[in-house]
Amino acid sequence: MALESRLVQAEMVEAMEFPELSQRHRVSGVPQTTINDGAGSVVGAVPEANLVAEIRRVASKA
Amino acid sequence: MAEKLLNQGIVSQIKEVFSQLKEPVEVLFFGRKEGCDYCADTLQLVQEIVDLSDTLGLKVYDLDEDADLAEQYHVDKAPGLVLAGRDGEQLTDYGIRFAGIPSGHEFSSLIHDLVLVSSRDSGLDPKTRAFLKDLKQPVLLQVFVTPT
User: Fold this and answer.
1) Pairing relation of β-strands A32-35 and B139-145?
2) Which of A49, B8, B14, B136, CA to CA, is 20 to 30 A from B129?
3) Is 0.90 exceeded by the ipTM?
């Protein structure tokens, strides 16, 4: 998605190395994808359409 | 010479995957001198990976000494990696980053992402592409993973 849009940034975070950030986002299961610093979140491997739906939900609240 | 992190079996597998590489990719490594347990291993790992293809390059920076560049690429963690497209001297930041050592499952994610950035094509569903094209505000996706 980051490759597709200049507005999207994608960061893979190794949760064990950055425990403070992981705790702030209450990372319990991995992978966990957070959107805009916690505005949205999906736990587990997420199908493309589901992630789009979650981004849409976050965008509509903003 | 320091012992290699990648054994011969892995090297052959990566080389096979890297036969799909198309356009040049530059990996920007951001380390930190103190308090970075995984910087040295990450740098060695990435160096060994980029050495496997002429299409890949590596630039090494320091999060503190190159703070302006780190900010430009939105890197705030060490070790941090940016996978940028390279066209001659021109780098294109797609906003694709890794924070922390890419080992375990993330190792294959890194290899996959290098090929993806090299292809310059997300491979996403047309519906997703249409949605992304209409985005009006920035979206930061952070995928938390563990090395196992």
Assistant:
1) antiparallel
2) B14
3) yes
